[in-house]
Recover the amino acids of this structure.
């Protein structure tokens, strides 16, 4: 199995103090042997941004070097791979955003959904909002 990671799953996976940490770990541990979690550049940048944001991390905020170190540990795990955009991403993004009203998270969420659709991957997330994108196959996890 291969799945695209949303930052709403990556952050709790990487940060033990997050309320969804156990759920994120549980999903990863349950993956069949040989499975692969795909990280795209947008999710990677979102993770780095959140790890180094004091408003999100509080006293556990990471400096940029520490955030990169966590990124390197994540991508050093053989279950994870960083992949560049699939060729059909822009067409999928245009289709998924056609006629959508403004939403503050529309463009980033639509990009992740389009990446998953274009790469024929399910998207693993805690964000219920991804259910609005068809034909995205979202794996919306339940928090503990």
């Amino acid at each position: 199995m291969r799945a695209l990671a949303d930052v709403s799953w990556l952050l709790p996976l990487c940060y033990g103090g997050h309320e969804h940490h156990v759920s994120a770990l549980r999903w990863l541990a349950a993956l069949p042997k040989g499975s692969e979690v795909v990280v795209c550049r947008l999710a990677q940048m979102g993770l780095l941004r959140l790890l180094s944001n004091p408003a999100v991390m509080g006293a556990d905020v990471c400096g940029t070097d520490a955030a990169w170190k966590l990124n390197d540990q994540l991508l050093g795990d053989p279950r994870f791979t960083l992949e560049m955009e699939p060729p059909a991403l822009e067409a999928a993004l245009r289709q998924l955003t056609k006629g959508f009203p403004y939403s503050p998270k529309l463009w980033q969420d639509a990009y992740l959904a389009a990446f998953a659709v274009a790469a024929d991957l399910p998207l693993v997330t805690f964000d219920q909002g991804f259910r609005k994108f068809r034909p995205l196959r979202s794996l919306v996890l339940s928090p503990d």
Notes: The longest strand covers residues 36-40. Residues 2-140 form a domain with the Rossmann fold fold (CATH 3.40.50.1010). DSSP finds seven helices and five strands in the chain. Residues 4 and 38 are 5 Å apart (CA to CA).
